[in-house]
Design brief:
single chain; about 150 residues; alpha/beta; D-tyrosyl-trna(Tyr) Deacylase, Chain: A; six-stranded mixed sheet; 2 helices; 8 strands; about 40% strand
Length: about 150
């Protein structure tokens, strides 16, 4: 699994002008799933994100995690995180999982984050979405379960 995690003051996802998910302070997580991803990887990624200490404390140091700031999470499926741009100018997405694998893993990831006690909003898998955010910091972390 791959994730781009951005600390935000607020974020939202809309489809056809209709807001389907929005949060205040917390994390916007763009999540990509590969065909070989497992539940153990989803758990490791959820644990790592939920414990990530990137919010500033009273001294201005990145020392607080999501729980410490009362944060929320907005998860958006993002198969393009598995783009391969080696040949030509049109990316290949053959390394991204198809919906039969990706949807259950995406849903399981969100469930695991909820199990940590966080409010989770989300986009709609496979839909054309508009994602907006007001970044905090800015802080953006790229994670790959092959490297955690």
């Amino acid at each position: 699994m791959r994730a781009v995690v951005t600390a935000v003051n607020e974020a939202a996802v809309t489809i056809d002008g209709r807001t389907v998910g929005s949060i205040g302070r917390g994390f916007l997580v763009l999540l990509g799933v590969a065909p070989e991803d497992t539940e153990a990887q989803a758990k490791r990624l959820a644990d790592k994100i939920c414990g990530l200490r990137v919010f500033e404390d009273e001294a201005g140091k990145m020392n607080l995690n999501l729980a410490a700031v009362g944060g929320e999470v907005l998860v958006v499926s993002q198969f393009t995180l598995y783009a391969n741009c080696k040949k030509g100018n049109r990316p290949s997405f053959v390394k991204a999982a198809g919906p039969d694998i990706a949807i259950p893993m995406y849903e399981r990831f969100m469930e695991l984050v909820r199990e940590h006690g966080f409010h989770v909003e989300h986009g709609e898998f496979g839909a054309m979405m508009e994602v907006s955010s007001v970044n905090n910091g800015p802080v953006t972390i790229i994670m790959d379960t092959d490297e955690l």
